[in-house]
Design a protein that fits this description.
This protein is mostly helical and about 80 residues long. It has four helices and no strands. The protein has two domains: about 40 residues, no CATH class; about 40 residues, no CATH class. The chain is elongated and about 40 Å long. It holds the Pfam family DUF7218.
Length: about 80
């Protein structure tokens, strides 16, 4: 059984490599802005600390609860 059509295949594969589930990766890769600027989401600096924390939690960054916004951005970029 094949998977549903993916609008941004490169982004889908990158998200899967980052540990996203097939469903979440497909949802993001098929979002309205998936083709813009390589399918990247909003810049880290434009996100709230809570949004950054949640992303850090999803990918398993250690020590995230003690990080400020700038440290979360740095950790996400270097993961």
């Amino acid at each position: 059984m094949g998977r549903p059509s993916i609008m941004n295949e490169d982004q889908y594969e990158a998200l899967r490599d980052q540990g996203y589930s097939k469903e979440k990766a497909a949802r993001i890769a098929n979002s309205d802005n998936s083709g813009k600027k390589g399918g990247k989401a909003s810049k880290y600096e434009e996100r709230t600390k809570e949004e950054l924390y949640e992303q850090a939690k999803e990918i398993g960054i250690e020590g995230r609860s003690k990080m400020d916004k700038e440290e979360l951005i740095q950790a996400l970029r270097n993961n």
